[in-house]
């Protein structure tokens, strides 16, 4: 399973790359605005830096709500770098834009997916990725991973090429469940990414080995 980092902060992305954990990046307008505002840079300049850092896909989202605006913004984003994947919301207008871009060979990610039928429509429109938001469903007492399993079952039945990109990952268990379900990609925030490798028994074992070694030296 590929692992993306859900961040627009180049420092976090560099850290993830240095650990060999990051295969790609997902951003959204909120993440880009926060980093751009803090650094005094334009969001597109931040996005260009990210595209230069990462060899894999860099997901960048449009903010327009109409098809014409989505297509205009999407083409501008796609021209920034060859590894840009254009994100569209799972709306009628978003799916219309996805269909146009699929015909033009521009990769797309349909985001904010909360229902298997939505995912089916995204695949039929020709999306490269669909992003079910598992954490947000869990927040309202709906099993987010059940959505992922249903999407994967539908895609396998009809041999859709759309990849399932599990989003709104809140903890390592989400990642394990996504991998077991067969999702091709999961995107995780930097805080979750840092915690993936940690385990109290690993820390305890390392501490014991170190203590025993120091006893021998003394």
Write the SSE topology.
Blueprint: E1 2-6, H1 10-18, E2 24-26, H2 29-39, H3 43-53, E3 58-61, H4 67-80, E4 84-89, H5 92-104, E5 108-113, H6 116-125, E6 129-132, H7 134-139, H8 144-158, E7 163-166, H9 172-181, E8 185-188, H10 190-195, H11 200-217
Parallel strand pairs: 1-2, 1-8, 2-3, 3-4, 4-5, 5-6, 6-7, 7-8
Helix pairs in contact: 2-3, 4-5, 6-8, 8-9
Descriptive overview:
The protein has 218 residues and is of the alpha/beta class. The protein has one domain: TIM Barrel (Alpha-Beta Barrel). Helices cover 56% and strands 17% of the residues. The model has no long low-confidence stretch (mean pLDDT 95).
Quick rundown:
This protein is an alpha/beta fold and 218 residues long. 56% of the residues lie in helices and 17% in strands. The protein has a single domain, classed as Aldolase class I (TIM Barrel, Alpha-Beta Barrel).
Strand content: 15-25%
Enter the CATH topology name: TIM Barrel
Extended strand count: 8
Widest beta sheet: strand line-up: 1-2-3-4-5-6-7-8
**Tally of contiguous helical segments:** 11
- Rg for CA atoms: 19 Å
Average pLDDT confidence is 95
Output the CATH class name.
Answer: Alpha Beta
Low-confidence stretches: none
Q: What composes the largest sheet?
A: 8 strands, parallel, barrel
Question: Based on the structure given, which CATH architecture is correct?
Answer: Alpha-Beta Barrel
Alpha-beta content class: alpha/beta
Shape: globular
As a percent range, the share of helical residues equals 55-70%
Distance between the termini: 46 Å
Question: For the record, what is the CATH homologous superfamily label?
Answer: Aldolase class I
